[in-house]
Design a protein that fits this description.
The protein is of the alpha/beta class. The chain has helices at about 1-25, 30, 60-65, 70-80, 95-105, 120-130, 180-185, 200-205, 210-215, 235-245, 285-290, and strands spanning about 40-45, 50-55, 85-90, 110-115, 140, 145, 150-155, 165, 170-180, 195, 220-225, 250, 270-275. It has eleven helices and 13 strands. The chain has a seven-stranded mixed sheet, with helices on both faces. A four-stranded mixed sheet has the order 6-9-7-8. Strand 7 and strand 8 (about 165) form a beta hairpin. The longest helix is centred in the N-terminal third of the chain and has 23 residues, at about 1-25.
């Protein structure tokens, strides 16, 4: 009987939250904590076409079941910038929510989904396998990306299950490789766009991919929540300056894609775009990207 009431409550909450999310254009993350944990549901038309298995233990999955979309800003941006033949790297893919967004946009390119944490990676792989047509489009990569080849430790945030970070001290050991090393290992000859969400290790990922940035000039969408840089030896400005050395401009992920001052304020996510890729954000992009002194 208790289980029946849990299901009824969850369905009612979903009926309330989904139109609110659609009306406001915001995700349902704030409501996800209201769902009872350890409930499983199947979303049948995520991104309009994919099956996606939800476990409400994980807030980002619960938010998708409630609101129908994960991270409205990022999803909208990817739909603007990604092309059908792109090679796309989802670094910090988690359970695949943005991997599937990219898959809905790419049909004769390739997606590499990086997720070093075994438990979360198994959920990512399961969601890919729920959709047979993704078999040849998406490849799951069991590495973390950093400065160089080696090993770090994955530590999950117990207050926000499914989110985790790599650290040098304690946790579950995972293999790490630099982006440049991986590209050589896999003989990758094209990279068009990269999404990085690695809880403060964004700088390490980018430094480990200097050759990729210099050769391919991929569009880079990366997390810049100041909270994740509180205990790192670098800061968000460091990342901006590093990318600027390769000719990149740093812009907001929302239209009209205004340039972000190096001293902030910083959005939750930033976009690094090279002049060679400016047309991805529309015909006016070259005018809107201005140099910041």
């Amino acid at each position: 009987m208790k289980q029946i009431w849990i299901v009824i409550f969850s369905l009612i909450l979903r009926l309330i939250v989904r139109p609110i999310s659609a009306l406001t254009g915001r995700g349902a993350g704030k409501f996800a904590t209201l769902l009872p944990k350890r409930q499983t549901y199947l979303v049948n038309k995520y991104c309009g076409q994919y099956k996606f298995k939800v476990d409400t233990t994980y807030p980002i999955e619960a938010s998708v079941w409630l609101g129908g979309v994960y991270d409205v800003v990022t999803t909208k941006f990817l739909r603007k910038a990604i092309r059908a033949d792109d090679v796309f790297l989802d670094i910090g893919a988690n359970c695949g929510l943005l991997t599937l967004v990219a898959a809905s946009l790419i049909n004769h390119g390739k997606i590499y989904a990086f997720e070093p944490a075994q438990t979360i990676r198994s959920r990512l792989q399961a969601n890919i396998e729920l959709n047979p047509k993704l078999k040849n489009l998406v490849k799951v990569v069991p590495f973390g990306l950093g400065l160089a080849k080696g090993q770090l430790f994955y530590h999950e945030d117990q207050e926000y299950r499914g989110n985790g970070a790599l650290q040098a001290i304690s946790g579950i050991p995972v293999d790490v490789i630099s982006l440049d090393e991986w590209v050589l290992l896999e003989n990758i000859d094209k990279i068009d766009a990269i999404k990085i969400d690695v809880e403060g290790m964004e700088y390490d990922v980018l430094v480990g991919g200097k050759a990729v940035l210099e050769k391919y000039h991929p569009l880079v969408y990366f997390e810049t929540l100041p909270i994740f840089f509180k205990y790192t030896p670098h800061n968000i400005r460091t990342i901006y300056e590093f990318l600027a050395n390769f000719g990149y401009r740093i812009v907001s992920p929302t239209d009209p894609y205004n340039e972000i001052p190096f001293d902030g304020p910083y959005p939750a996510n930033s976009v690094a775009i090279h002049p060679s890729q400016a047309d991805r954000l529309g015909q006016g992009e070259r005018r809107q990207i201005r140099k910041v002194n």
